[in-house]
Design a protein that fits this description.
- It comes from Mycolicibacterium chlorophenolicum.
- InterPro entries: AttH-like_dom_sf (IPR023374).
- This is Hydroxyneurosporene synthase (CrtC).
- The chain folds into two domains: about 170 residues, AttH-like domain (AttH-like fold, Beta Barrel), CATH 2.40.370.10; about 160 residues, AttH-like fold, CATH 2.40.370.
- The protein contains two helices and 22 strands.
- Helix content is about 5%, strand content about 65%.
């Protein structure tokens, strides 16, 4: 699996940014599902003007930081396997990934190793508004290491994790939205994992792409696409966002901006395979980014943590587990 990963996951920016550099986006996203804790780490490049490191954590509530860096502090290794943003690094190693965080102004630092236990999957050239985006994701990894944030020290010892890598050309604020979720079982011995994706227009009246991906142990077991998938949104979580990042955007994004549902139901059927998942968020953080199209708007990503229950039958195998989940709801 690590050999497959090394061949398929590498930095695209030096190769693809070229002609339309201003519209180019690329980010590496990691989620750690530790007991009673979610950790999100993101290394993000936006054209030649912006580089960001995002670290947010949930134990009793979401907290964290979005730190922006001068593009002159961005370095990509010759083999395209390492990205450095200031003193923060993400490296594809022979065994997976190594992430080092160093944000001294916020008293945040740490070192984490991510070892894949499932094969990566790549989706190329999907429409995103008027642009295109590709992504690679690893639905299940083991995370080991430590992170210090807000005066707390967190240790990870083979905790389950998720990774995705996204790249393409599009503009924040375009006619698109998405829901993206990762579910791993609370019992590490359980062999199932699930990833959900739905790309929509901004008003969420139609989907342009949707999929349920199910892994059994290290192999993909089912890929249920488009009309094979139905989603049902129930209510709206009454709890306000724990935080809005970067902090100054909290003055702009008020409480009327869409949040997250009270409950999200996902049903997928194809031939003999059937999957039913129900996600119940408990809290969320908002990440706001100025629109690149409309001066009076911004794009809001709601990172929601909670619990999930997944049932179904895939390749004749019965699936029934309680999961830890993080879903991202993007409102353009």
């Amino acid at each position: 699996m690590t050999a497959v990963l090394a061949q398929s996951d590498f930095l695209r920016a030096p190769l693809l940014a070229g002609a339309d550099a201003d519209d180019f986006k690329e980010w590496h996203h990691f989620v750690i599902h530790a007991p009673d804790t979610h950790v999100l780490i993101n290394f993000s490049l936006t054209g030649p003007q912006s580089a960001r490191v995002i670290v947010i954590v949930h134990d009793t509530r979401w907290t964290g930081v979005v730190e922006r860096f001068d593009p002159r502090l961005v370095e990509v290794s010759v083999d395209l396997g390492e990205l450095s943003i200031g003193a923060n690094t993400m490296r594809v190693t022979p065994d997976g990934y190594r992430v080092q965080i160093d944000l001294p102004a916020h008293d945040i630092c740490g070192v984490m190793d991510f070892t894949p236990v499932s094969r990566p999957f790549v989706v190329n050239n999907q429409p995103v508004g008027e642009g295109r985006m590709s992504w690679l994701f690893v639905p299940r990894l083991r995370a080991a290491g430590w992170l210090r944030i807000d005066g707390r020290d967190m240790a990870f010892d083979d905790d389950l994790a998720y990774h995705d890598h996204n790249w393409g050309r599009f503009r924040w604020g375009g006619d698109f939205g998405w829901t993206w979720g990762t579910i791993v079982p609370k019992e590490r011995s359980n062999p199932w994992s699930m990833v959900f994706l739905q790309m929509t227009d901004r008003r969420r009246l139609r989907f342009t792409s949707q999929a349920v991906y199910v892994w059994h142990r290290d192999e993909p077991a089912a890929m249920l696409l488009r009309s094979a998938v139905d989603t049902h949104v129930h209510g709206r979580l009454s709890r306000a966002a724990d935080c809005t990042l970067p902090a100054p955007m909290g003055l702009i994004v008020d409480g009327t901006v869409p949040g997250v549902p009270e409950r999200l139901e996902i049903c997928a059927h194809r031939l003999g395979d059937a999957v039913h998942a129900e996600f119940r968020p408990t809290s969320y953080a908002r990440l706001a980014h100025p629109s690149e199209i409309h001066l009076d708007r911004c794009t809001v990503l709601c990172e929601a943590g909670g619990s999930a229950h997944v049932t179904g039958t895939v390749r004749g195998e019965r699936m029934d587990f309680d999961g830890a989940a993080v879903f991202e709801f993007l409102h353009g």
